[in-house]
Amino acid sequence: MGGGGSALRVCADHRGGINWLSLSPDGQRLLTGSEDGTARLWSTADGQCCALLQGHESYVTFCHLEDEAAFTCSADHTIRRWDVLTGQCLQVYRGHTSIVNRILVANNQLFSSSYDRTARVWSVDEGQMCREFRGHRNCVLTLAYSAPWDLPGAPCMEEAVAGGLLVTGSTDGTAKVWQVASGCCHQTLRGHTGAVLCLVLDTPGHTAFTGSTDATIRAWDILSGEQLRVFREHQGSVICLEREGSGGFRAGPAADPPCSSSQLVNRLVYSGSADRTVKCWLADTGERVRTFTAHRRSVSTLKYHAGTSALQRRSK
């Protein structure tokens, strides 16, 4: 991680900073969302721009790419779905009243979080809001979803987890666990003394890991709401979290919202911080395994892939 490397492709048509990157499942396309209000699709084979996605009225905060559709959200309060072959906008999701921070797609549902203090779930095909999750006292930054088949089948829990659980993190210092089917708050995870910037799930273990401006990472049982352990060694805000096996690339102030159901390999969690380091932790004990030091500024991005961790620093 301290070594250099040469660029294989340069994608340089945007007229503003790039806030997020998303790679297609087959690895053939890259989606970028930009400060210039557009998103672009690129061929990973030759670095050429395949499609320009225009329509947002403000900067793109986040993007997500699938094989046949691309999703973007924006400071214009909307989310858009695009055809990856034609670049045509297929759907506009309207309802948020402030900046939309994050989106994720699972089970033909679209989940979103916003500065309007809510998270929402939408029907992907119909574009209609199905449920609003309201209860945070400040903006909702990050979110993750646990599908019902990843959760225990105990009779007392069947109704609560029938539609899966949504976990959200907020600048109010809490994370909340929501019942997707009912919209009810299942648990409020309290303990952080600063904003929750990032979170990842170990869904089969029904455990959430949250990172905060209070310089800690905390592990929680999302069913009981119990705080399991606290990871303390960072000297600055924990900006991004990654577990082995999760996906996504990001560039921005909060963490990627994975919805993968794969278990933690070797039970390791990685964290990137404003203290310019990345740390590797044993998820089950909170013990620090190693610290990576190479960056001169805050680490804002962390991606684990096949035994290699790729990091990105903040340029400001």
UniProtKB/TrEMBL annotation:
Keywords: Repeat, WD repeat. InterPro entries: WD40/YVTN_repeat-like_dom_sf (IPR015943), WD40_PAC1 (IPR020472), WD40_repeat_CS (IPR019775), WD40_repeat_dom_sf (IPR036322), WD40_rpt (IPR001680), WDR86-like (IPR044715). Coiled coil: none annotated. WD repeats lie at residues 11-52, 53-92, 93-132, 163-188, 189-230. This is WD repeat-containing protein 86 isoform X4. The gene is WDR86.
